């Protein structure tokens, strides 16, 4: 079985959002880049699955669409434990563009299980995994909080309103993962970092695809009015304000 | 031409979000000078279907088919596509929730329609079609132009004030063509009788400042009293003090209730990413400098173990 993990390169989650050029461009000054948290958990789960020989996983590939500035992120994925990496050499202009690029690659390099994160920490689109599946005309399962392999069959746990259910799917399948897929992201060990240098990182020319959306500009949230402080000895006042001022009770 | 809106039901009754969606769709239909078509998939009876007319649906299409009792994303996408094509939909609208997130991207590819995911306002213009959405987990917003002829939108939770505007739409039963289903479902575990965190209008949440799982009684009592759901910060679910479903934030659930009460939560940026769209935030924290107070509308500097029981008392007095 072959696993592909889609990776997105995003600003560290503590980054303050700032914009330049008339609020048209995200200001990358001083930004630390990380593997999108859900993608990192997906990679972790893939490595856990591979570590059990019974699951017969031949290899784990990570793929990203980005220019060469994303290479540290993809090297990190190799250091954590992916076997090889693919970078499609293009600016990821929108989710449709990214999914189309990855789909093109998969058409000539098939995988059995494809992981993607439920959303990216930058554009919050929740889109690439589902789009990819539709481009390939294969099943997708979203809101995935668990993946295991039982006698060669992939068992997926999907969250539903108020609980979860088990989904069995024909392969290949795209699993769009969220919390629960792995406990903690795996950290690269020194040995992994050394080994990563010699693992293959394939750079691929992008296909002709036109993005369907375009960002005009960014806006900062309106400043919130200052927090009204209430005397801890007068909690009644809070209830009064919630009822009569905020009108939420 | 039309605006198509995909509604969701729960055991045959529409979810509240479905009315929000239909109302939102009807406003876009007005902007485009066309009609609103609401699609319902599943076993919803005519009496219930008619309710969509209260939010200005011009036409209702109902698809009932055994095969659609489980959510197979491919099958659902195919049904919505058939309806969208038959109705000449220019815009297709879904909720930004589990189901919408599963289906909208597939529809985007199937209909070659640009996706505006998690929009929180009406489009600022229809020519070019410009939508407004949250980015960087709520730290900013973006205006995005959708360039394709057909557009797919998912509407962020609790972002649109819906209004009643009664019409009496015709109900059409549509016999969709459903191919082979490639997924199957088993072992469904579903809690009933509990308010769902993602649907709740009020949420009472506890953080590490609650000190131990034994101290959750006042949070639960307050929630019960307010008809609220309970939530927690990530360390609390990591410690196993509370179930994982309650974890809110960047890597947990993203919610937008009318009222979010945070007790003993410091207000880390990753926590705020999950709750900052709440209409009103109340913070209870012993540390007056805790960042949660920057996000909150109302704050009490105090010990949650004392403030919460007082709050319960005060709420009882008005109920
Ligand atoms: C990639 C990444 C993703 C993350 N995702 C999430 C996420 O989704 N959700 C999330 O919550 N966190 C997330 N975190 C963790 C986050 O950074 C914080 O560590 C976490 O939110 C802190 O939880 P807390 O507020 O409960 O605990 P603490 O930060 O320990 O705060 C406890 C607070 O309780 C107060 N307190 C103490 N005693 C009392 C008392 N008796 N009464 C009242 N107040 C009291 C203290 O003053 C303090 O402010 C993430 C971190 C990373 C790196």
Q: Which terms summarize this structure?
A:
heterodimer; A: 249 residues; alpha/beta; Rossmann fold; B: alpha/beta; 2 domains; globular; binds flavin-adenine dinucleotide
Walkthrough of the structure:
The complex is a heterodimer of chains A (249) and B (319). By secondary structure, chain A is of the alpha/beta class. Chain A has one domain: HUPs (Rossmann fold). Chain A is built from six helices and 15 strands. Chain A has a nine-stranded mixed beta sheet with strand order 11-10-9-12-8-1-6-7-13, with helices on both faces. Chain A has a two-stranded antiparallel ribbon with strand order 2-5. In chain A, strands 3-4 form a two-stranded antiparallel ribbon. Chain A starts with a strand and ends in a 5-residue tail after the last helix. The mean pLDDT of chain A is 96. In chain B, a hairpin with a 2-residue loop joins strand 2 and strand 3 (13-14). The longest helix of chain B is centred in the N-terminal third of the chain and has 17 residues, at 16-32. Chain B has two domains: 2-173, HUPs (Rossmann fold); 197-318, TPP-binding domain (Rossmann fold). In chain B, helix 5 packs parallel to helix 9. Chain B contains nine helices and 18 strands. The mean pLDDT of chain B is 96. Chain B is an alpha/beta fold and 319 residues long. Chains A and B meet through helix 3, helix 4, strand 9, strand 11 and strand 14 of A and helix 3, helix 4, strand 7, strand 9 and strand 10 of B. Flavin-adenine dinucleotide binds next to helix 6, helix 7, strand 17 and helix 9 of chain B.
């Amino acid at each position: 079985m072959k696993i592909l993990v889609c990776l997105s390169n995003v600003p560290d989650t503590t980054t303050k959002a700032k914009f330049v050029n008339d609020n048209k461009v995200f200001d990358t000054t001083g930004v630390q880049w990380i593997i999108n948290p859900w993608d990192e958990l997906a990679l972790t789960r893939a490595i856990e699955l591979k570590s059990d020989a019974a699951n017969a996983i031949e290899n784990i590939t990570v793929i990203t669409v980005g220019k060469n500035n994303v290479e540290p992120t993809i090297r990190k994925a190799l250091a954590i434990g992916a076997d090889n990496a693919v970078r499609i050499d293009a600016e990821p202009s929108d989710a449709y563009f990214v999914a189309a690029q990855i789909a093109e690659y998969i058409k000539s390099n098939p995988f059995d299980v494809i992981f993607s994160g439920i959303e990216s920490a930058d554009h919050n689109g929740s889109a690439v995994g589902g789009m990819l599946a539709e481009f390939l005309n294969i099943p997708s399962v979203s809101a995935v909080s668990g993946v295991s392999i039982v006698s060669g069959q992939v068992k997926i746990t999907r969250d539903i309103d108020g609980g979860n259910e088990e989904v069995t799917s024909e392969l290949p399948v795209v699993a769009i993962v969220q919390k629960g897929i792995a406990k903690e992201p795996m950290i690269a060990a020194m040995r992994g970092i050394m080994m990563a240098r010699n693992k293959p990182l394939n750079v691929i020319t992008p296909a002709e695809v036109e993005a369907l959306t375009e960002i005009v500009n960014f806006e900062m949230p309106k400043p919130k009015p200052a927090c009204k402080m209430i005397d801890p000895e007068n909690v009644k006042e809070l209830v009064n304000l919630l009822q009569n001022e905020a009108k939420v009770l | 031409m039309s605006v198509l809106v995909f509604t969701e039901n729960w055991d045959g009754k529409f979810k509240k979000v479905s009315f929000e969606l239909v109302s939102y769709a009807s406003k876009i239909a007005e902007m485009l000078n066309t009609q609103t078509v609401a699609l319902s998939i599943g076993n919803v009876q005519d009496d219930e279907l008619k309710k969509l007319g209260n939010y200005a649906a011009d036409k209702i299409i109902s698809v009932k088919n055994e095969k659609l009792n489980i959510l197979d994303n491919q099958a659902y996408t195919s049904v919505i596509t058939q309806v969208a094509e038959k109705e000449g939909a220019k815009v297709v609208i879904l909720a930004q929730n589990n189901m919408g997130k599963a289906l909208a991207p597939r529809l985007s590819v199937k209909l070659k329609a640009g996706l505006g995911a998690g929009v929180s306002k009406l489009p600022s213009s229809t020519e070019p079609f410009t939508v407004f959405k949250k980015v960087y987990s709520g730290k900013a917003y973006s205006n995005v132009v959708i360039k394709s002829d057909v557009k797919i939108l998912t509407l962020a939770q609790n972002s649109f004030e819906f209004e009643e505007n009664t019409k009496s739409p015709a109900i059409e039963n549509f016999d969709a063509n459903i191919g082979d289903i490639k997924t199957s479902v088993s072992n469904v575990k579903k809690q009933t009788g509990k308010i769902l965190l993602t649907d709740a209008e009020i949420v009472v949440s506890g953080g590490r400042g609650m000190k131990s799982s034994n101290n959750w009684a006042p949070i639960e009592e307050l929630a019960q009293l307010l008809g609220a759901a309970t939530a927690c910060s990530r360390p609390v679910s990591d410690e196993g003090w509370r179930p994982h479903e309650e974890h809110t934030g960047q890597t947990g659930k993203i919610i937008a209730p009318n009222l979010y009460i945070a007790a003993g939560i410091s207000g880390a940026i990753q926590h705020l990413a999950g709750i900052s769209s709440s209409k009103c935030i109340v913070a209870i924290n012993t540390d007056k400098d805790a960042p949660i107070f920057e996000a909150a509308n109302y704050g009490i500097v105090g010990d949650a173990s004392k403030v919460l029981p007082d709050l319960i008392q005060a709420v009882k007095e008005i109920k």
